[in-house]
Design brief:
Elements: E1 2-11, E2 16-24, E3 27-32, E4 41-44, E5 49-52, E6 54-59, E7 64-65, E8 68-69, H1 74-83, E9 86-91, H2 101-115, E10 119-122, E11 124-125, H3 133-143, E12 148-152, H4 164-177, E13 180-184, H5 188-200, H6 207-212, H7 215-232, E14 236-238, H8 244-255, E15 260-264, H9 266-270, H10 293-305, E16 310-311, H11 320-323, H12 343-352, H13 358-372, E17 389-399, E18 418-428, E19 431-435, E20 438-439
Parallel strand pairs: 1-4, 1-5, 6-9, 9-10, 11-12, 12-13, 13-14, 14-15, 15-16
Antiparallel strand pairs: 1-2, 2-3, 5-17, 7-8, 17-18, 18-19, 19-20
Helix pairs in contact: 1-2, 3-4, 4-7, 7-8, 8-10, 12-13
Bound molecules: N-(aminocarbonyl)-beta-alanine and zinc ion (2 copies).
N-(aminocarbonyl)-beta-alanine (URP) is lined by residues 60, 184, 286-287, 314, 316, 335-336.
């Protein structure tokens, strides 16, 4: 099947130019002005942007968490991804004591083989080294294309936290093997002290979720993780960065040439902790929580200056009735929010309004994620890459509502968000999977991406 996308403005991480894009068997084969190539199908993209599909490197689909399971299955989550211009998702299966990495990943692969509507890869969360066996198994996992592993410095009571000794062992092993350690940085002991105090005082609303894990709680753990990684000269990727002080430590380390990578999420760029004062504040409960205006400003500043490497979603939605468990006790609210279908439209809207450039949106949503996490064939409109392509209409107005999303959840923190410009088509390896509001893909067509070494 040949496809020719004609006359659009191709956007890469470094430049934009008007060109035709030719695709053969799912691969980009030519880019140039007025290509004289016959094709089975010609798409007129005149006046539109032609962008690489986004890579959402942070999702939690069908994940057991917070006393339930996150609301999007692998099918609905990847369907929504396609409709938001995301053509590859990275999921985070959580290994538990006694479990092997490949045992866990293979069980997820079996489901995704049937359900995936876009391509997929895995970071594996390690919670227990199984007496050191996991350190050996990491080598095998890397051969299978799982080249990044996540550690939680939080969720201690949930049995998911790793201590500093374990983190250091993982950092050293990852360095040796050319892999990456991803970190969720918050300090659980301080959170627990704060929670105990607030509950004993009858302070139970969502606002106290924020106050029990404010800026300094994240910053301490960010700094600790950066401290170990920089002193061991090991690469480190900080997920969902939300606070200024931690971010500044990362920026310093980057300026000193250290391999410290920073991810933030659209929710931290859009909302501040004030959302937790709202009557529906519990719907915004995620960890780390949204922070104050100063932190949000620092995220935008760092993004523009090139210190934020990726923007990903941490997509982990729950239904309203589950969020309601915490109506009278914020500790009972399952942590996590939706975002997979909003990531690219949100960042592109920021570009359309002049806040950032379109090249920057492409860089942090597609090109950098592919480079950092070893997806050789993804992340850019260039010859030889997979034809994961989004056609974007800069003039199309769109208001986000749970009714026009393609997930399984029954509410979204993005309800009512007005966007100027919106993706109108998504192609997955040359096949149209989203067209003007409609999902056209097929579950099971997404492929496992066997990744190379991390950057
Ligand atoms: O609140 C969140 N972020 N839930 C998902 C799990 C995690 O911590 O990333
Ligand atoms: Zn996390
Ligand atoms: Zn997460």
């Amino acid at each position: 099947m040949n496809l020719l996308i004609k006359g659009g403005t191709v956007v890469t991480a470094t430049e934009s130019f008007v060109a035709d894009v030719a695709i053969q068997n799912g691969i980009i084969t030519a880019i140039g002005k007025n290509l004289n190539i016959s094709a089975d199908k010609v798409v007129d993209a005149t006046g539109k942007l032609v962008l690489p599909g986004a890579i959402d490197v942070h999702t939690h689909l069908a994940m057991p968490f917070g006393g339930t399971v996150s609301a999007d299955s692998y099918l609905s989550g990847t369907r929504a991804a396609a409709c938001g211009g995301v053509t590859t998702v990275f999921d985070y299966p959580i290994q538990r004591a006694g479990q092997t990495i490949l045992g866990l990943i293979n069980s997820k692969k079996e489901i995704l083989e049937k359900e995936a509507c876009v391509d997929y890869a895995f970071h594996c969360c390690i919670t227990n080294l199984n007496d050191g066996e996991i350190l050996d198994e990491m080598e095998l996992a890397i051969e299978e294309g799982i080249t990044s592993f996540k550690c939680f410095l939080v969720y201690k009571k949930e049995g998911m936290m790793v201590d500093d000794g374990t983190l250091v062992k993982l950092l050293l092993r990852a360095k040796e093997l050319g892999a990456m350690i991803n970190i969720h940085a918050e300090n659980p002991d301080v959170i627990d002290i704060n929670i105990e105090k607030f509950l004993s005082e009858g302070k139970t609303s969502a606002w106290y979720h924020y106050l029990s894990r404010p800026e300094y709680v994240e910053a301490e753990a960010d700094k600790r993780a950066v401290h170990w990684a920089t002193n061991l000269d090991a690469p480190l990727y900080l997920v969902h960065m939300a606070d200024k002080e931690g971010l500044e430590t990362c920026i310093k380390a980057k300026e000193n040439g250290k391999k410290i990578y920073v991810e933030t999420c659209p929710q931290y760029l859009e909302f501040t902790c004030d959302v937790y004062k709202r009557a529906d504040g519990r719907n915004f409960v995620c960890s780390p929580p949204m922070k104050g205006q100063e932190s949000q400003d620092s995220l935008w500043k760092a993004l523009k200056a090139g210190f934020i490497d990726t923007v990903a979603t941490d997509h982990c939605p729950f239904q309203s009735y589950e969020k309601d468990w915490g109506k009278d006790d914020f500790t009972k609210i399952p942590n996590g929010c939706a975002g997979i279908e909003n990531l690219y439209p949100y960042m592109l809207d920021a570009a359309n309004s002049g806040k950032i450039s379109f090249e920057k949106a492409v860089e942090v949503c597609a090109t950098n994620p592919a480079k950092i996490f070893g997806c050789e064939n993804k992340g850019s409109i260039s010859i030889g890459k997979d034809a994961d392509i989004v056609i974007y209409d800069k003039e199309k107005d769109f208001t986000v509502s749970v009714k026009n999303m393609h997930s399984n959840y029954d509410h979204t923190i993005w309800e009512g968000k007005k966007l100027h410009g919106y993706p109108v088509q998504t192609y997955l390896r040359g096949t149209l999977v989203y067209d003007n509001g409609d999902f056209l893909g097929k579950p099971g067509t997404g492929k496992y991406i066997k990744r190379g070494h991390c950057k």
